[in-house]
């Protein structure tokens, strides 16, 4: 039997080619308070239980039970313009609705055991989103060549279930650690007309963790630091692809490959944050966050079986690198301010600069770039125990001219640009 031609058309974009208006496919949506201040200082401010998403050590700042839960609505706009190939001879046009909108929930609970220990539990999302660029190929005549392997629907969701413990060493230092159980699911389709090239519907679990520390110089000046260890999520389910191979005497025939699972690596996250109460009414806070997207090198399909029906041949193909990314590590920097109007109302605002992660290999389905966040928020304190928070963010990405290689048509040129609005609401209660 001849060796398979492993172009693997079907999954050249793979499960993680998505658009979230944050570096890679990372989410910044864990709380409405954080949204309002561009998540500046979120690893140390500890004004409600949502601090658990950023730094477990900050639970030591609570002397009463606290609970927070909320929703974020992400309205994403992705423009994909002037898509063409064959040296510009074939123009697929443009679309302005490749992004998808999402509702992202979260919940946090912190319980101080005594003056030394506290425990917390949380459910939130650090990664995930979706795009759909399939309409770019619908205007072509049937059976026309097109980069079908680059155009399609991609949906990725992760949910982080966290349990954490903090310990107060003394009045200045606290430490904390937590275990993350990460559930991931993905849906990916690539179609050539009515012929499915790829159909992936898979999910799975993995375990990671987080460690953190706080430094309290005094009640008005403190710092937080944390490091989150993100796992490689192995997802299982229906993972079916079609590629093509040429067999002498037979011609070019389809190869149907079924894989048992996919390995999707997630990025570790390191951050430092500061909080300073400048006056009784005004506080300044900031964050620097480093995300190790350089570890996100490829999507790996595991334990495949390929079938060439035309010649009645089935062969195990083992593990296959479906897509290489060669991403780079990224930084985000945010600065925010909080102003207390009176006992009932607190307002906040912030700015964030978020670096893109795409290096030498770019993607139409992943229009990544540096982004700027402009945010504002407000807290309404119903009484000392009950607070409702609102946050809003406008995110603007840069225009990117890219070339991505298709296994079907060769180089494809495009211009991509993304923007979006986040709307967040949250309720918090301190017992």
From TrEMBL:
Name of protein: OmpP1/FadL family transporter
InterPro entries: OMPP1/FadL/TodX (IPR005017)
Coiled coil regions, renumbered to chain: none
Family recorded in the similarity comment: Belongs to the OmpP1/FadL family.
Cross-referenced Gene3D superfamilies: Outer membrane protein transport protein (OMPP1/FadL/TodX)
Subcellular location: Cell outer membrane
Main location: membrane
